[in-house]
């Protein structure tokens, strides 16, 4: 998780936490993790797997109130909710410091070339390309990790 700049004590949100693969790695950094998972069965498995170390929020992205204090997002969210997610985490009053998101390459290209889902003062860039075999089952879509970060003042 060093590439995500997440560390000890940081508040981090894992959107669409699923079975907790990213959540587990975030905990290893010493971060305070909020795992958002809509599916009741997966949310219960997350609670069983991590106990009190993770706050599992069983909610829809549109219903959850995002933190106003500084927070990070590290997630492989459902691709169908990416535009809504970017709008929510970059909304006025958001405490987002930085987000690392797994997204389809074509979505990343749209973000960087005119179709903006981001609100100012945020920027987006591709951090790395992920090989198809990085996923189970093997990905059929070209996939990248993007970094959304607040522009520095000055």
Characterization of this structure:
The radius of gyration is 15 Å and the shape is globular. By secondary structure, the chain is an alpha/beta fold. The protein is 23% helix and 29% strand. It has one domain (2-150): Vaccinia Virus protein VP39 (Rossmann fold), CATH 3.40.50. The chain has helices at 21-28, 40-50, 82-89, 105-112, and strands spanning 11-15, 32-36, 54-57, 71-75, 96-104, 122-130, 143-150. It has 4 helices and 7 strands; from the N terminus they run E-H-E-H-E-E-H-E-H-E-E. The model has no long low-confidence stretch (mean pLDDT 90). Strands 3-2-1-4-5-7-6 form a 7-stranded mixed beta sheet.
Name of the top-level CATH class: Alpha Beta
Shape: globular
Q: Could you name the CATH topology?
A: Rossmann fold
What is the count of helical runs?
Answer: 4
Q: How many domain modules?
A: 1
Main β-sheet, spatial strand arrangement: 3-2-1-4-5-7-6
The run of helices and strands is: EHEHEEHEHEE
Beta-strand percentage?
A: 25-35%
Q: Main β-sheet: number of strands, strand sense, barrel status?
A: 7 strands, mixed
- Which regions contain 5 or more consecutive residues with pLDDT less than 50? none
Name the CATH architecture: 3-Layer(aba) Sandwich
Tally of DSSP β-strands: 7
């Amino acid at each position: 998780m060093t590439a995500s700049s997440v560390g000890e004590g940081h508040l981090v949100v894992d959107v669409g936490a699923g079975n907790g693969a990213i959540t587990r790695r975030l905990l290893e950094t010493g971060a305070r993790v909020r795992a958002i998972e809509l599916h009741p069965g997966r949310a219960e498995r997350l609670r069983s797997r991590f106990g009190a170390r993770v706050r599992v929020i069983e909610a829809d992205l549109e219903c959850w109130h995002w933190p106003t204090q500084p927070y990070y997002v590290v997630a492989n969210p459902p691709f169908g909710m990416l535009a809504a997610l970017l709008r929510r985490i970059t909304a006025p009053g958001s405490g987002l410091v930085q987000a690392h998101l797994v997204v389809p390459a074509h979505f990343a290209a749209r973000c960087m070339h005119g179709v903006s889902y981001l609100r100012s003062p945020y920027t987006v860039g591709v951090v790395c390309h992920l090989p198809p075999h990085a996923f189970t089952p093997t990905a059929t879509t070209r996939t990248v990790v993007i970094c959304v970060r607040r522009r520095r003042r000055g």
